[in-house]
Amino acid sequence: xxxxxxxxxxxxxxxxxxxxxxxxxxxxxxxxxxxxxxxxxxxxxxxxxxxxxxxxxxxxxxxxxxxxxxxxxxxxxxxxxxxxxxxxxxxxxxxxxxxxxxxxxxxxxxxxxxxxxxxxxxxxxxxxxxxxxxxxxxxxxxxxxxxxxxxxxxxxxxxxxxxxxxxxxxxxxxxxxxxxxxxxxxxxxxxxxxxxxxxxxxxxxxxxxxxxxxxxxxxxxxxxxxxxxxxxxxxxxxxxxxxxxxxxxxxxxxxxxxxxxxxxxxxxxxxxxxxxxxxxxxxxxxxxxxxxxxxxxxxxxxxxxxxxxxxxxxxxxxxxxxxxxxxxxxxxxxxxxxxxxxxxxxxxxxxxxxxxxxxxxxxxxxxxxxxxxxxxxxxxxxxxxxxxxxxxxxxxxxxxxxxxxxxxxxxxxxxxxxxxxxxxxxxxxxxxxxxxxxxxxxxxxxxxxxxxxxxxxxxxxxxxxxxxxxxxxxxxxxxx
Length: 480
What we know:
Region (Disordered): 1-41
Pfam families: TRAM, tRNA_U5-meth_tr
Keywords: 4Fe-4S, Iron, Iron-sulfur, Metal-binding, Methyltransferase, rRNA processing, S-adenosyl-L-methionine, Transferase
Oligomer: single chain
Strand order of the largest sheet: 7-22-23-21-20-17-18-19
Binding site for [4Fe-4S] cluster: 109, 115, 118, 195
Number of helices: 11
């Protein structure tokens, strides 16, 4: 216990701790099966046929078994090594690429292949976006949905887009302090000094943050560091699991240093304690706010607090909101129901267009933030707290709000309960805009709506997360 929170002296790796294991060593995986000798020999050289939804190459072994190959592109002949064998498919990595696809580029980040954050940097930006559109088209088609010919792309050329991030902090078995992001599919931390996709304001904070963390007496007490950048300034929130007076003084000095810099606008807070953590600002509390400017409308200001959900890419988010408003064309007095409304990303633009908006969120603090944002912009919005996954909740909202249009923007798990209620409702909105960060759950839910009588009219893919396989997808459905 005396060593808790202290840097431990280096020790020789035992070979069984996991720290020194090769990244693809799956010998002890419960998924490991007895290798098929023929496949093991023949699988050394295959040609990649296509991409899976997560961006891995897909090929066939001589036996006909499917194999997913990390960082391999369609058309590339590769020599592979299988590192995990499952009943229906194998997983492999490339030993040698025999020729390159024209879709391949040199990854712009030095940490590619180690950091799990940007898994498509080996593909050109155009190829990444073509893949995302194709993935959405395939997932919707699998549900038997009739698709429009054109799927719109919402994107910007910028790659330094990410305005929020969580830096992990750890002390490894050799006593080294690591500050960075998780490796793909692992809790292992990759130590980083720079990040290609962070907005410049946050990228500039990495070096000084690392410097402070490396001076701490108890770096083990730091769980992670949250970074967020908005038009109103930046915030750094340090998750301190256990108070430490000396380290608090170091963080205080850093907060004062940030406040004294010409750029200013960076607030630093300590979120201390395990079970009931308390947030203490070591400088003036931040005035975090997003400016949402849409074509033909006055800018809207949305206040944000650390920990609130905020789309990672501000420019693409503005395009996404503008597209939903163009699809729904909310008019004066039209009743609109916004489910999973967050801080008001879609609520406020719809209300500013004159719609009579009822906005629903699950977390009471978020409901209050949404109501504050409506007041800040002089808008009249009915903000409601409700568990949208509870039986009967959506039915009750449809009865009381009687919406003519509806927006769905659920978390990754989707809105299955809400869509089931909408499909069966005797009185329901004529138009639904569904925004999703998971095209698989979106396709599932859209199929429910279509089976209930809605028709899919428009599809758009938003490249919210450049260099990753993740995306936002937008659907417009019309009641037939």
